[in-house]
Predict the 3D structure of the following.
Amino acid sequence: MTRVLAGKQAIITGANQGLGLEIARKYVLAGADLMLCARNLELLEDARAELAELATPEQKIVTQAADVSVEDNVNNLVAQTLRQLGGCHILVNNAGVYGPKGEIEAVDWTQWVKAIEINVYGSILMSRAVLPHFKAQGYGKVIQLSGGGATNPLPRISAYAVSKAAIVRYAESLAEEVRGTGIDVNSIAPGALNTRMLDEILEAGPKTVGQAFYDRSVEQKKSGGSPLDKGADLAVFLASPASDGITAKLISAVWDDWERWPQHLKELNGSDAYTLRRIAGRDRGFTWGDK
């Protein structure tokens, strides 16, 4: 991998396992200095030790345990990043949970709210904390991890679905707020990943998550799911200068030909393609539904 992120500093939340850890690996190989964040400090230190073996002597890899849904934790995390790394150019909002599983009237309401706090409030708090620094330097990349809930209903996993749709629309809105400042904001749909979150679905069983979703999850486990490195490669691209000017998009790591997008910036910026939008009847050939 070419060192396209050399001289850049990045915060990656939820970086101690799964896709977050894979993104961190790719960022190290691309030359970035890293602040790794997660709630489990032991796993976080294991991740740091693993990544240190891939880093050059000049690269810095630091860690901090934090709950991104707690404002004081977030503000301290960003302050420590600026102090220990000397700056920040990239924020990867990867931390996320499924939340409780089951029908909405039966799930634990406290857990449902906590999932929203982590998946939505956590990403918003992180972006709020880094934006003054990004604006002051006239450059920044906010990379938001999305999921299947952003574009499809997920009955019995409603907290996750609601949070993923909400955070993509937030990313689109933030991109418009900062357009022209040198800050790009995009969301990644990484595909169906075989991580601990898939294991949660299988452990919950068909009575809790629904037979159809459970059966799809079983097949995903057997097939191997989407490779982690596809989402991580897209995260590198969106953090690199190659993606400058691409903003306010929801990008599929698996299906979109994003490596060619820099050749089509004018078309991208003038279109609502690759965004969350309402589908009207006329879009599906109905002649009776729209005025």
In short: The beta strands are 9-13, 33-38, 61-65, 90-93, 140-145, 183-189, 250-252. Residues 188 and 251 are 5 Å apart (CA to CA). The first strand starts at residue 9 and ends at 13. The two ends are 53 Å apart (CA to CA).
